[in-house]
Description:
The complex is a heterodimer. By secondary structure, chain A is mainly α. Chain A is built from ten helices and no strands. In chain A, helix 2 (47-54) crosses helix 10 (237-259), helix 3 (56-89) runs antiparallel to helix 8 and helix 3 (56-89) crosses helix 9 (222-232). By secondary structure, chain B is an alpha+beta fold. Chain B has a six-stranded mixed β-sheet, with helices on both faces. The chains are: A mainly alpha, B alpha+beta. The A-B interface holds A 163, 165-166, 168-177, 179, 184, 187-188, 190 and B 50-52, 71-73, 75, 77-79, 81, 83, 85-89, 98-99, 102-103, 143, 146-147, 150, 156.
Amino acid sequence: MRLSGLLYRGGIWIAYIFMLLPVALLIATSFFSDTIISFPPSGFSLKWYHNGLTRSEFLSGFIVSLQVAAIATLIGVPAGTAASLALVRSSIKFKQAIMTFLLGPIIVPGIVAGTALYLTYLLVQNALDQDIVGTLPGLIAAHILLTIPWTVRVVTAGLQGLDRSIEEAAASLGARPWTVFGRITLPMMRPAIVAACLFSFIQSFENLELTLLLVGPGVTTLPIAMLNYLEFQVDPTLAAVATIQIVVIATMLIVTDRTVKLSRIV
Amino acid sequence: MTSLELNNISKAYGTALAVTDMNLTVETGEFVSLLGPSGCGKTTTLRMIAGFVEPTTGTIVINGRDVTRLAAFERNTGLVFQSYALFPHMSVAQNVAFGLEMRKIPRPERDARTVEALQRVRLDHLADRYPRQLSGGQQQRVALARALILNPDIFLLDEPLSNLDAKLRGEVRSEIRALQQSLELTTLMVTHDQEEALTMSDRLVVMEAGAIRQSGTARDLYDRPEDPFVANFVGRSNVIAGRIEDGRFYSKSGDVLPCVADQAPAGDVHFALRPERISLSVDGEGLEAEITEILYLGPQTEYSARVGQTELTVISPTPGPDDALFAVRVGSAVRLRWDQNFVRLFH
């Protein structure tokens, strides 16, 4: 009895270590003073953080990533929520096909979607005689292709778990359909919608493959800026930038968990 | 004035009929239960009265007003669900006040009536709690307060006690009945539990396969069931198929079961006799039988006794050590007797 309990605990510890060790090493490396990452480090330094925070491409990349993620989430989550409501509640036909269609961008391999989008943009650019590749609106439109599927996935699951009799109770108490939606359905959907915002934002912020071909001078996201840096220099600056990202996202998750118990949604 | 009228109500889903040509009247202040097995149409009927399902044919009249085409929010019905259906993101007080809010009742009056409603179910001290912090029984009482605060024309209950454990059921049952009687509310309850129906209702309506089989008081249905289904659904019944010949009943296997059959016409019949109406003894007069199974139920014991080739179920108070029946085991020879007036014959 005790041995199997010990093995079980041991297994869990190993799993945690396996998952978190790379992250821990990353954070550790960001403080090593050597330019070439070596172990054991000869000293510790904050110079990589200084480098990361002052280089213009990282700063502008951060701002662009933030803008794109925020706006893509702001547009994608309401649209995805509306789609989920239609898919779960209405009696339209071909629901499964529509669902598959909406989830398409995240099912298809990222680089395939990215290339296809790039080619589409080129076609549209020529037809409209307007720049799209390398523009902020172009990036935002591309990232909406990420936020909508993630929202549909999360909100649909949330809606399916909703007890309809609660809405019926509201109706029996005199609530008109729109009142039921605003006072009962939407508040009960809050955990799912918050989760959708979170997932959408993170997916957009971290995205590489869809964004790769669509960036341009001055309009580059942070992950791409980091990738570019890697082409010329391999030093712990990226570890520092990555650590900052981890801290930012972790803070977002903790804050969200305070308002909406994430363990109930994920 | 009748409070509720269902006139020729039916509901079809495609070609399947969930409810067929149903006619029902409920008087003001009456407590009626719709009783039946799963799929008999009782819940569909309730939902049509509430306004969640539109009838295929027929009309529903509440207090003289035809509500058939009205949406749920336009009918003045109070609903209590099996799952309580409390609003999870609102406090107990907000839940109860919701209906008043929908009617745009001003704040002071709303608060006063909410306190009163909560006091009636003895939950005023929990007004600021949230549903997830309450026990099942408490949640159900909040649901009651929420539904009753609006003085509904009709009080509708959909299996309100199913989610509660046995001990709690009795308490909430009495609570509902007491509230209903003190407020003189016209009430319709759907249940598959006959004990619930028998103890709470003024009148029972037994349904099967979308139609009403029999309607009446608990005594009517228990003592004078009109068909074998009702005989075995309200209370339990031995139902033996057979025929009447020469003024006697013969079961399919040829055994004679005593009953008042000399006035009955010859032909195929069903013989129905309740298990608790059969007396069991170890000797004396009566039909010879052999015990094939014994089920101990606490205060009562259920015996399966074979008369010839016919199996009868007998329910008797559990014998104490001084009782002759104490020694009865599987395989024992016993005698069965019953008052023949308790036998129902269905053609």
